[in-house]
Amino acid sequence: MALAFSVKVVLGSIAFAIFWVLAVFPAVPFLPVGRTAGSLLGAVLMVLFRVVTPDQAYAAIDLPILGLLFGTMVVSVYLERADIFKYLGKLLSWKSKGAKDLICRICLISAISSAVFTNDTTCVILTEFVLKIARQHNLPPHPFLLALASSANIGSAATPIGNPQNLVIAVQSKISFGDFLIGILPAMLVGVLVNVLLLLCMYWRLLSAQKDEEDATGEVVAEDDVISHRFSPATMSHFPSLNSQEWNSRLESMNENLSTRWKRRFWKFCVYFVTVGMLISLLMGLNMSWTAITAALALVVLDFEDARPCLEKVSYMLLIFFCGMFITVEGFNKTGIPSSLWDLMEPYAKINHVSGIAVLAIVILVLSNLASNVPTVLLLGGRVAASAAAISASDGKKAWLILAWVSTVAGNLSLLGSAANLIVCEQARRTPHLAYTLSFWKHIKFGVPSTLIVTAIGLTLIR
């Protein structure tokens, strides 16, 4: 696309620049309105500046992506209610054999959970568990928090539902869930293993320091778990004398509790069954957006209660952010600037050569940290795939998978690289009685080598 006439280029660039600043620095002093409002502001400016028409703005909003995002968020809410994340948290400390074992468990559980439940959800739920485990074992928290955040990002690269940019790629490329998984899974598995080795090498001495023997064998149990399982054997074995009416009342109460417990177990089974059914349907190649929405509504119906409390937990701010971002990126594309820049870079970024893959990966890595990964995917996706498809159809598919892998792992480069990193940092800082601040420098000290090595190794495994 040639550059549009100069006024549209300037005004569109200004609108995109405002969006970029507020997306990367949501609390910027001169306009601290946040990412969501910044996204809407960018979209409105694109229309007011006549870079896009109102009809083009509406058409730019990708409903299948929003539907898939909404459906997976609702399913995650019900899985949380069904205690799936509590069980994952218990797995972290079950029969633990020391600090190095904990690092391995955190990386593995975080990666697998993120591939199924998204990296952001995994980090929201598991950060407090990880912090409690580190504190109870009298260990420094930051290696474990880094293990959680970095492995969540790497693991989320394996599936279309692992993170928002993969949702965009899956919908735009029309790559099936199964093909996406097969294409990136080897890179993800090796990437997690390499990430574990890097963590162990970098923090070996810290994790090998002498600790309290009693702490080394402890198991983290949340307060609500302790309360819910509290009972008194003495009371159970020595009943006072009761008349028949009191006995009947006691038996009715026990029957009600037993009935409630079985209903709860059956409901949990239904939640897990629907979730597994959703994953199988996705693997079979059914429409991803409608599959996720159908699973979400099935859980709403099976719950047989007012769905408002669960639906209120959906991040509508994220959905609105995506709407604004779609319009803003569409407007920036119409200025012709992205196309012109890609025309300059395309001859050096052919994916049928190792040097071309390296150049493309560096561009994606830099843009993902400067402009965030989702806008990078929206700006580059179609161009990279079209360029690769001109070589061969299989190269077109490979280009999308490379974009998914690099834009996701790029999030590990710095603390600001992905929302998952910021979630871990904020959750750790706000955890009652266990607060810990993961600094920018502690993150980047591990993030830079991990990102570069994991990205490079993974690129050789993507097929």
Give the low-pLDDT segments.
Answer: 210-242
Q: What is the CA-CA span between the terminal residues?
A: 30 Å
Portion of residues in beta strands equals under 5%
- Note the total helix count: 23
Global morphology: globular
User: Largest sheet, if any?
Assistant: none
Instruction: List SSEs in N-to-C order.
Output: HHHHHHHHHHHHHHHHHHHHHHH
- Structural class by helix and strand composition: mainly alpha
Helical content stands at over 70%
InterPro entries: Cit_transptr-like_dom
Pfam families: CitMHS
Transmembrane segments: 7-27, 33-52, 59-79, 180-204, 269-302, 314-332, 353-371, 400-424, 444-462
Protein name: Silicon efflux transporter LSI2-like isoform X6
Spell out the blueprint of helices and strands.
Blueprint: H1 6-24, H2 35-48, H3 54-60, H4 63-81, H5 84-93, H6 99-117, H7 119-136, H8 142-156, H9 164-173, H10 177-208, H11 213-216, H12 223-228, H13 233-237, H14 244-283, H15 288-303, H16 308-311, H17 316-334, H18 337-345, H19 354-370, H20 373-389, H21 393-409, H22 419-430, H23 440-459
Helix pairs in contact: 1-2, 1-17, 2-17, 3-17, 4-9, 4-15, 5-6, 5-7, 6-7, 6-8, 6-10, 7-8, 7-22, 8-10, 8-22, 9-20, 9-21, 10-23, 14-15, 19-20, 19-21, 20-21, 21-23
